[in-house]
Amino acid sequence: MSAMLHPKRNEAAIRNGRTFMPDMGLTLPLRQLGRYLRDWRMRSSMSLEEAAKLLEVGATTLHRAEKGGNSRIKSYFVERACELYGVPPDIKEGMVGLARQAATGTNWWHAYGDVIPKDFDVYMSLEAFARRIISYQPNLIPGLLQTGDYDRALVERIWPDGPADEWVSRGRIKAHRQNMVLRKLEPTTLDVVIGEAALHHLVGSPATMASQMRRLIELPALHPNIHLHILPFEAGFPGGVSMPAYVVLNFADHATGEPAEPPLVFLEVTVGGMYLEDQDDVDFYTRKHRLLENDCLPDIDAANLLTRLAKEYEHRER
User: Cα separation of 195 and 179, whole Å?
Assistant: First the structure.
């Protein structure tokens, strides 16, 4: 899918009265590449000046690349930087792929295993930098709220032939992701709407589902940064539209109060994902989320529903 919109180069984009400065980068792939370049340089214990000298570029040029502001970064430069920093081959391939995606514009279709290797997870590295996550899942418990057994049951269905250590590894990754909303120090805010159907789709055993229902009750009670809403069947289609699963990522502000990066919408399908940064798209999904929330169950009714379902699943397990 080709890019639909292209931001003006070397200009601040004015969105909703807030100024997005040029050093935020021109495209999402470039900003992600910049993060990786900076992270791996720091892992190698090199200063910006030392790395720039060895790469035979100016320190300003390297700094701009690490900020995602180089609109014409070359693949061979990324390859040289990866060799210098000791980047593993699989991650190097992903970083080179990001460089090749530099001209995608504000909306980017990422096909899994195309230019960027399938195992190079772009979304997770974005999620890790988010300060607020808005999500809607009509049929599945969101990953950040899943129990270990629920997650493992899904993983085993996706990769039924194992190996078992791969299942364990993916479970650890999920637990690491969840830490961002469960940690005590500056946790990420999670505002999620779950369709009632997700509570009825059997994942694993009834015991697994009972534990998952209990977890959905406990997490918002223990973590005030987690806002859980349940959209009941009776709500139908708020706004007259059947919404797909989506995630809206909002990022931290600079010390000046300006956004470090523009928010974005992530839409995932089985063969890839779509990243939307155009402000009209972000506003559309934000408005739709408010409509969904307005038709969700009151908190006490949601807790009662989860408690009832937990008991029903426990009874089925006997």
Answer: 24
The answer to whether domain 122-317 has CATH 1.20.950 is no
Contact call for residues 190 and 144 (beta carbons, < 8 A):
yes
Place of tokens 């408010």: 290
Q: Where are the domains of the chain?
A: 14-105, 122-317
Q: Would you say 275 and 32 are in contact if contact means Cβ atoms under 8 Å apart?
A: no
Task: Give the Cβ contact number of residue 47 at 10 Å.
Answer: 11
Crossing angle of helices 28-43 and 59-66, rounded to 10°: 120
Cβ(108)–Cβ(117) under 8 Å? no
What are the structure tokens assigned to 311, written together? Answer: 């008991």
Q: What is the pLDDT of residue 258?
A: 60
CATH hierarchy code of domain 14-105? 1.10.260.40
pLDDT of residue 2: 29
Amino acid at site 223: H
Spatial CA neighbour of 130 closest among 250, 34, 24: 250
The pLDDT tens digits of the residues spanning 136-179 come to 999 999 999 999 999 999 988 877 776 777 767 777 778 888 99
Comparing 66-80, 180-194, 253-267, 289-303, the range with the smallest average pLDDT is 253-267
Is the Cα torsion angle 47, 119, 193, 180 positive or negative in sign? negative
Give the three-state DSSP class for 104.
coil
Q: What is d(CA 188, CA 185) in angstroms, rounded to the nearest whole number? A: 9
Q: In this structure, what are the phi and psi dihedrals at residue 10, rounded to the nearest 5 degrees?
A: 60, 25
The C-alpha atoms of residue 16 and residue 1 are separated, in whole angstroms, by 28
- Decide if 14-105 and 122-317 have a common fold: no
Tokens of 13: 């984009």
**Beta-ladder partners of 269:** 272
CB 85 within 8 A of CB 40: yes
Q: How far is CA 265 from the centre of its chain?
A: 9
Q: Tokens at residue 220, please? A: 């918002």
**What's residue 288's pLDDT?**
95
pTM attached to this predicted model? 0.75
